[in-house]
Each structure stands twice: as structure tokens, then as C-alpha cells.
Design a protein that fits this description.
Elements (H helix, E strand, L loop, with lengths): L2 H19 L3 H45 L3 H31 L6 H4 L15 H5 L6 H6 L3 H15 L4 H27 L1 H16 L2 H32 L3 H18 L2 H13 L6 H14 L2 H17 L6 H17 L5 H15 L7 H6 L2 H25 L5
Helix pairs in contact: 1-9, 2-7, 2-8, 2-9, 2-15, 2-16, 3-10, 3-13, 3-14, 3-15, 3-18, 10-14, 10-18, 11-12, 11-18, 12-13, 12-18, 13-18, 14-15, 14-16, 14-18, 15-16
């Protein structure tokens, strides 16, 4: 049984046990605090890796992007389009989620149904000069210690760009050191994730014991919200392709449909790559040099639904905690979601869920204790994440081909 299935089974088992405990007050009073302690300890194990892992990932990611940009005009243009696409996807996702939650708000007390206490919302953050100055990491060590993700991410970007300007051999040694840090932290993360079924079972038991079936209803709403964000971003690809490549929406949709079917059924962009290559070579008519360079790069680093879905998760968790999202918090979350999603390529899905969403939540002042329960139901949103990524990867490759002088 895969880790994802074991986590899902632990969630269901925990909810069932918690629901059963509601019938036995004495047992619930004794077992719920113990389960809560186990769950919090497991979440703490994940938290210790977030800050150093994100910093190391961004530094190595910036160096990799610089190498790609130096590879030639096609690669540089593709990288620019990727950055624009990720930023736009996060913006669209944020607007969709906020619109959906205004129509279908989170029920009052929903956070209690998941076994967590209501969080006092942070003070509203307006976009002012002082707010913009807070992006400058005057004390990166303090930012790291206090989990201030926006200045930490800004410093990591500056550090990564600066590293690419020093002697090539020294740069390679420095980036190699950060890659070793990343690999070491990944070992710790895998150790913690090996215990994920235990942690999720404990947290789900608390949720079931305190709220019963209401916890399941909250998880269903979460799935609908995140899936809606992914679908909105995926649908946006079609008119963008039409405008920038001058290929009609219907021909594009027919050409990519086989790859989408594989993506939907396998939840893997890599497994969809052969069908994507066939679509690019056949009905889309993308030239071989562009196809061979851009498509593998897109599959590797252009996960358009990553920034979108991760931002959606953070916004939904904020709504659960009753945290009002000001324009400043919205901008901070969108910025971090975009940068971290580009930096965390190649990570396993369970790892990337925490590594990419945790920093977004922290940047917006949103607690992350709920993320393990949401990971347990990530299977459904992951289908639509993969579908959107495959659609955007083919769209990007087509756009780069047409923008580089391919005939219509």
C-alpha cells in the first residue's frame, strides 16, 4: 500500500474511532488529549525542516534557473513564460477561492470540527511603504527563527542570484553544499512522513471525537474549493493559447486530450510525457528543437496548478481560522506561493505538500497544524493538479514555438 493510501486509511480510521469515542465520555476524556499530543508532536517534526529546506531549495532553484537562462533564447523565453504563468495562476486561484467562499462560506465553528481551536486573526495588512520595506530582510537569522517567510524568501532569492555572479567553481561548490543540505533535510522529512499514518490517525481521532461527522463535511468543502481553483486555472490555458499561438481552442483541446486522459488516470506528468510528445509532434506541429528543449523543461518545473492550489489551500485554512485576508496578506501569500512552487520541483507529492504550502501559510500568518489532515484527502485535488499541469505544459511548448517564428 502506498503512503498516500496509508495516510487516507489512517484518516478514515481516526474519524471512525473519534466518532465512536463520542459515545463514551470517560474514554474520550482520557484518549483525546493523548491523541492530540501525538498529533502535535508529529506536526512539530515537520515544522523543524520547513525554514532551512525552503531556503536551500530557493538558492539551488535560482542557480538552476540561471543555468537554464544561459542555455539560449528559447530556454530563456520559456523560463520567462513559466514565471508569468505561475504568478497569474496564483492570482486567478486567489480570486476564485475568495469568490467561492463568499458564496459558500466556511460554516461557523468549522475549525472546531477538525479538533483545532479558533485562531485570533492577525491585524489587517495594508500595502504601504512600511509593508513593502518589511520585505527587506534586515536580519535574516531573526526572520528564520520567527518563521517570517516573506523576508526569508527575499533573502534566499538575493543570495541565490548573488551566488551565480561569483567564480564558477566557487559557485558550483556553494550550490553543491546547499544541495547536500537539501538532501539531508529530505532524509529527515522522509523519516517524519514514514510516521504520517500515526500522526494523521491521532489528529483525525481528535477531530472525530470533538465534532463527529461535521469534520467530514469540512474536508469535502476543502476538496471542492481546491479542485475549483485548479479547474479555473486549467480552463484559463485555452484562451491564452488561442491568443498567443493563434491556434483555435477546439484543435488544441483535441490534440491534448489523449495526454489529459493519461494524466487524469495516473496522476503523473511523467507518465503522460510520451502522449505529450506525440501531441506536440503530431497535431500541434511543434518543431523538434523547441519540442525537445521546452517540453521536458516544462514537465520538470512548470507546475501551473502548484502555486494555484497551494495558495488555495492557504486561503481555505485562513477562512477556517477566521483570518481576514487583506490585500497585503493576499500579495504576500501569492508571492511566496509562486516562488516556492518553482523552487520545490522534483520533490515527492507528500513532501511538496508541506514544503510548498507551509511557507505560504506562514507568510500569511495562518497556522499549519491542519495540513496533515488535508494531506490525507489530497488524492482528489492531485488529479486536477496533474490535469492542469499537463495542459499548461503543452500550451507553453506551443506558445514558445509560435513566438519563436514557427509557421501558423
Amino acid at each position: 500500500m502506498s503512503l498516500t493510501h496509508r495516510i487516507l486509511a489512517a484518516l478514515i480510521a481516526g474519524l471512525v474511532v473519534g466518532l465512536a469515542l463520542t459515545q463514551f465520555d470517560a474514554a474520550r476524556a482520557m484518549l483525546t488529549p493523548a491523541a492530540e499530543l501525538i498529533g502535535k508532536a508529529w506536526v512539530g517534526g515537520l515544522r523543524i525542516t520547513i525554514v532551512p529546506l525552503v531556503f536551500a531549495l530557493i538558492v539551488t532553484g535560482v542557480a538552476s534557473a540561471a543555468d537554464t537562462a544561459r542555455a539560449g533564447g528559447v530556454a530563456g523565453r520559456a523560463l520567462l513564460f513559466i514565471a508569468i504563468g505561475l504568478t497569474a495562476s496564483a492570482l486567478v486561484s486567489g480570486l476564485v477561492v475568495q469568490g467561492l467562499l463568499s458564496i459558500w462560506p466556511v460554516p461557523a465553528g468549522a475549525i472546531g470540527s477538525l479538533g483545532l481551536a479558533q485562531t485570533l486573526p492577525p491585524q489587517a495588512t495594508a500595502i504601504t511603504g512600511d509593508w513593502l520595506l518589511s520585505f527587506i530582510p534586515t536580519n535574516p537569522v531573526k526572520s528564520a527563527a520567527e518563521g517570517e517567510m516573506v523576508p526569508l524568501v527575499a533573502f534566499a532569492l538575493l543570495f541565490g542570484f548573488a551566488a551565480t555572479r561569483i567564480d564558477r567553481n566557487r559557485c558550483a561548490g556553494l550550490i553543491g553544499w546547499f544541495q547536500s543540505v537539501t538532501d539531508t533535510l529530505m532524509v529527515i522529512v522522509h523519516w517524519v512522513l514514514w510516521l504520517a499514518p500515526v500522526g494523521v490517525f491521532a489528529l483525525a481521532t481528535v477531530a472525530g471525537a470533538r465534532a463527529g461527522l461535521a469534520a467530514a463535511g469540512t474536508l469535502v468543502q476543502y476538496i471542492v474549493v481546491v479542485v475549483s481553483a485548479c479547474i479555473a486555472v486549467t480552463l484559463l490555458v485555452y484562451p491564452v493559447v488561442r491568443i498567443t499561438s493563434r491556434l483555435g481552442i477546439a484543435p488544441f483541446a483535441r490534440a491534448i486530450a489523449p495526454a489529459q486522459v493519461i494524466a487524469f488516470s495516473t496522476q503523473s506528468s511523467i507518465a503522460s510525457l510520451p502522449a505529450m510528445i506525440e501531441a506536440a509532434r503530431g497535431p500541434l506541429g511543434i518543431r523538434e528543437p523547441v519540442r525537445n528543449m521546452v517540453l521536458p523543461m516544462a514537465v520538470s518545473i512548470f507546475r501551473i496548478t502548484s502555486a494555484a492550489a497551494n495558495f488555495a489551500v492557504a486561503l481555505y485554512v485562513a477562512a477556517l481560522h477566521g483570518i481576514a485576508i487583506s490585500p497585503g496578506l493576499f500579495a504576500a501569500g501569492m508571492l511566496v506561493a509562486t516562488i516556492v512552487s518553482l523552487a520545490a520541483v522534483g520533490l515527492p507529492s507528500q513532501v511538496s505538500f508541506f514544503t510548498t504550502i507551509g511557507p505560504v501559510c506562514l507568510a500569511m500568518g495562518v497556522p499549519i497544524e491542519l495540513l496533515p489532515l488535508l494531506l490525507a484527502v489530497e488524492t482528489v485535488p492531485d488529479i486536477f493538479r496533474t490535469l492542469g499541469n499537463v495542459t499548461a505544459d503543452l500550451g507553453l511548448t506551443l506558445i514558445v514555438d509560435r513566438q519563436n517564428g514557427a509557421p501558423d
